[in-house]
Write the structure tokens for this entry.
Amino acid sequence: MQAGYQVLARKWRPKSFAALVGQEHVVKALSHALDQQRLHHAYLFTGTRGVGKTTIARIMAKALNCELGVTSTPCGQCSSCREIDTGRFVDYIELDAASNRGVDDMTQLLERATYAPTRGRYKVYVIDEVHQLSGHAFNAMLKTLEEPPAHVKFILATTDPQKIPVTVLSRCLQFNLKQMPPTHIVEHLARVLEAEGIPFDAAALRPLAKGAAGSMRDALSLLDQAIAHGSGEVREASVLAMLGTVSSEHLFAVIDALIAGDPAAMVEVAKQMEARSLSFDTALQDLATLFHRIALAQFAPQAIIDNAEREVLAGYAQALDAEYIQLAYQICIHGRDELELAPDDYAGFVMTLLRLHAFAPARSSGGSVTGGVSAGGAAANTGSSARAAASASPTHSPRAAPVSAAKVDVAPPIAVSPAPTSRSISAIDRVDVSGDADWHALVAQLSLTGMAKQLAQNCELSERIGNTFRLRLPPAHKHLLGKIQEDKLQSELQKRFGESVRVVIDVAATASETPAERSRAEQRQRHERAIESIEQDPFVREAVALFNAGIDESSIRPI
């Protein structure tokens, strides 16, 4: 680090109310009070670390002692403003209550407060972490805090206002500072990096904002660390490695494998995370957050602020059942609690993933996980009024016979055959691959697993020119792209055709049905035919009429 370097948290500390980020409600109230000369003798700023408590106190001191007069916009150029910024102003006293918490310390402070200011208009006493003062110290300051000299202003700051006596709270004007929203942190970090001339990835700022947990000071400290870690640049891969954060690609891969009913792919993701020494506790936390966001996409899509993930979440909201999302969220929460009881974190994480797979209501290769409630929260519309009536909530007649008294024969399982495809898979051996049907059949024959399989299933064959396969991948699945997956797909195609093959994948909207979409459509058709067959079964209809019951469509499985 070069000599004279100033850390970003200090260099970019706001020096005026206009430069403050995320505390508009406090700035507005204080600005009006200063402009109208309605000044209180004691202020209390509360909030978590790094949200601007002592920064606002310092700006208030400048506003009160600026040589241009009391104003909400201190000049920042006069000797008083400059000395307050550097902490050398004689009438600006910062006290750390953690190390000056006794009654003797408070008595000395109050004695000095009786003397007139040496240079400024007001003596400003800032007591940080005021909740750490002893009970006797609080009692000693009560009288002075209630009726201080006209030239004294007290500014108290704390992260734990519950520990401050109510007698002190009642004598102060209290302002609660909010935690910084991640969007505000990302925007501020981007401005800092642009001003510093440091190259950065916009995607790298989101994990920094998340790691800061609402603290702008922590965000700037993490940014300093990221710049050092990335050799003068801030790149997403470097930031994720520094924080040990699980990338969204890993999380999306888990959901894709869950939808596809591919537990091997889920285990493969866990192995990749273990190889990178990522935190499995953080992974389960982020996975639970992802399920929460998918649920929002189903029921309240307007609540999703991040436009970058809106399309991906909307796709998952359509593919996953609303009831299952609630269960999956709980599985992730309980999985975190059980990590410390597992033989090791890897085993605990894998078992949680397999539990997500095992409890999925229904699945097929590339198919959607569906149950009794469709994505979007609406009941599944099958077009059959009889089925709509049968799926209503069961009601029980008070005169219905006990279950043990009725004997209803159960019909044997009904085999439902899948709809015939437009061409046989074996046709690929005879016909050149040039269209959608050929691509669908080819994908089914390739020996792909994990994310490579999901990549192939979600692609559409755009064109084939010679040995070059140009594929089209929907933007909602662009997280499946990766050199490893593309190399595996290319290798399998080369094995299949016995010659060198080149694969080019474009991220763009598809013009026709992908293998994954067709598989989901076939699964839905099979499920609907199974429901219709069950409803038309005479034994089932007799049981429904006898018990005044309903059919739980989510429990029906095509065979």
